[in-house]
Each structure stands twice: as C-alpha cells, then as structure tokens.
Amino acid sequence: MHNPFSEQRGKPRRPQRVASEIMRMMPDLIRRHVKLPEDIFVSIVGVEVSPDLGVAKIYFSVIGDDENRQSKKAEKLLNTKRGILRKEIASRMVMRQHPELKFVADHTSANAARIEQLLDQIKHENKGSEPTEL
C-alpha cells in the first residue's frame, strides 16, 4: 500500500514544499514590511527548512556596490524584522507550527565574480609569455 506521507529518496517532502512557499512569498513580504535603504537591493536565492519545520534559513544576495558592507546591513535589518515576517507567513500558510526565520547573506555571486576576475587577470598575464614544455 502506498503511503502518501512517506519520504521520497530519504528526504521528507514537506520541508521542501514549505521552503518553496516561503521563497515564493518572501520578496513581497520584504517589500511591504522591511524598510531597506534605497541603495540596497535584496534578492532571495534560496530557502532551507529543517526536517522538523522548526527553522527556515533564508539565503539572500545583495546587488550593488560594496556588497559585503551592504549584505551585513541588510542581514541585520532583515533579522530584526523576522518576527513580523514570520507572523505574515503564519497568516498565509496553514500550519500548526511556523518555522523561525533566519536570514543569511549568500556571497556565492560575489565570490564567483572575484574568481572570474582573477582568471581573466591570469589569462592576460600569460598572454604575453610563451608556453613552457614539461
């Protein structure tokens, strides 16, 4: 007999569904309830919900100049408003318990851009030199 509540591939499906729903509604909630400075643009890049649905880590990236400083500022602002955001999620999602929210800055895009810049620099430095044989 098929059990609709069974785990698929060893991972529960419910945390994934909750994460997907939080990711879908988070941009609108941030826009409505968090007063970010005009020079900070936040993009939600992922949501992970713990298997017990107790914690939701919301990963975001910041677009703009001085991303490191701005991401710290945005992380602080978002985490101070997490209670209001959790309350809004609770009003939109039918669940017995709603996860605690934790905002985490994601530096993947900034790191990728820095690696790309370094690779270009190496490429241009090696362009003038002749290849050596081993």
Entry keywords:
134 residues, alpha+beta, GMP Synthetase, Chain A, domain 3, 4 helices, 18% strand, elongated
CATH class: Alpha Beta
Number of helices: 4
Succession of helices and strands:
HEEHHEH
Summed over residues and divided by their number, the pLDDT gives a mean of 83
| Outline | elongated
Helical content class: 40-55%
Largest sheet: 3 strands, mixed
Number of strands: 3
Describe the overall structure.
The protein has 134 residues and is α+β, with helices and mostly antiparallel strands. It has one domain (13-107): GMP Synthetase, Chain A, domain 3 (2-Layer Sandwich). The protein contains four helices and three strands. A three-stranded mixed beta sheet has the order 1-2-3. Helix 1 packs across helix 3. The longest helix has 21 residues, at 13-33.
Produce a short descriptive summary.
This protein has 134 residues and is of the alpha+beta class. Helices cover 49% and strands 18% of the residues.
